Amino acid sequence: MNSLSKHKIVAVSATALKSGGALTILRQFLLNIPDQSTYYIFINKDVIIDSNGLKNVHLIKVETSSLLKRIIWDWYGLSYWFKSRNLKPEVVISLQNTSIASNKDSKKIIYLHQGISLHSKSWSFLKSKERSLAFYKYIYPFFIFIFADKKTRFVVQTQWMKNALCTKFNRDANSIYVFKPNLVPVDIAQIKSINLPYKHILFYPATSMVFKNHQEIIYALHEINKSGEDISSIGLYLTINENEDKELVDLIAQFNLEKNIQFLGSISYAEVLRYYKSSTTVLFPSYVESFGLPMLEAALFGKPLIALDTECSREVISDYAGANLVEQNSPQCWKNAILTSISLNQQYDSYQPNFEYNWDSFFQMIHE
């Protein structure tokens, strides 16, 4: 690829990146922007973030709180913003999965990090907990591709997503790039541990979405309890609120595990890092992931990781010595994995893979 020498106007739509992994993408994008070219980055009005002192970066806040406002922005707003200022972006990037209306001469790049529409799992509009997932599975692809043409380039985070994009939506493999995200630099030595009232700390940083599969862990803890092990020494910390998943709370009550489960709710990234450092084992039973960044974050801290055995986890974390990939819907296997991790009580060397194609590759592609 060519060097980053040609000056361009680059438009970046990131108005839907407000929290969690999506906001991490925006942070990483900003951290890696080169000082060549002028970047106009459109973000959600409620997001508090800075441009890291880069003079070539302009952050513009946009109101897209509703689906209608989001559609208006994608279909009309961004294009009008530039036209009204007599500016013409050479590159238009969507960091939020969906395609955007733009000048036909602009290079179009879509950063696709929503894996639900690519995954084989089916969802039902008739089930309240699955309704939003069914939307992403069956309707959302319309918004992904509506303004995409044959020249549009897609960037995904894993090979499994590229394969699915080719087979499910008949996209040309040559127009799809696999660029894995870098971890945000963390000085582990400066992070303070938390004094927690359990000998063994299990930590699962995830939202309450159905595919995050929290129940897998609850069934495993139930099996541990049935086997006669001292369950009182085990504490499971979840980054969701009790009122977000009534079925999960009912299951916990059914198995008398209330004293073992701690609902943290949504916590800051700084607090997440403290729980990583304080944990005995990090769990990741999610079965639909575009990348699964918490797996790499656990490895960065050298923590034992028990994750679901998926295409994604095998691609991202199988080289980490502390990773144990376990099959789905197998309480006995998860029980054994947790007990083994607790008994070994092992700390591993910090692991941070050096992916060949990453954010540097992304920006090289912009300027080629």
Protein model, in words:
With 368 residues, the protein is α/β, with parallel strands linked by helices. It has 2 domains: 9-182 and 356-366, Rossmann fold (3-Layer(aba) Sandwich); 188-344, Rossmann fold. It contains 11 helices and 13 strands. It has helices spanning 20-32, 67-84, 131-145, 159-169, 215-226, 246-254, 269-278, 293-300, 311-317, 331-344, 359-366; strands spanning 9-14, 38-44, 57-62, 91-94, 107-111, 153-156, 176-178, 200-204, 234-238, 261-263, 281-284, 305-308, 323-326. Helix 8 links the parallel strand 11 (281-284) and strand 12 (305-308). The longest helix is centred in the N-terminal third of the chain and has 18 residues, at 67-84. It is globular and about 70 Å long. Mean pLDDT is 93; it is low at 1-5.
Q: Given the structure, what is the number of helices? A: 11
Give the CATH superfamily of the largest domain: Glycogen Phosphorylase B
β-strand number:
13
Overall geometric form: globular
Query: What is the average per-residue confidence, as pLDDT, rounded to a whole number?
Result: 93
Secondary-structure element order, as H and E? EHEEHEEHEHEEHEHEHEHEHEHH
CATH architecture field of the largest domain: 3-Layer(aba) Sandwich
CATH topology grouping of the largest domain: Rossmann fold
Euclidean distance between termini CA atoms? 6 Å
CATH class call of the largest domain: Alpha Beta
Q: List segments where confidence is low: pLDDT < 50 over at least 5 consecutive residues.
A: 1-5
Q: Give me the side-by-side strand order of the main sheet.
A: 3-2-1-4-5-6-7
Into which percent range does the helicity of residues fall?
25-40%
Largest sheet: 7 strands, parallel
Number of domains: 2
> Approximately what portion of the residues adopt beta-strand conformation?
15-25%
Structural class: alpha/beta
Radius of gyration, CA atoms, in whole angstroms: 22 Å
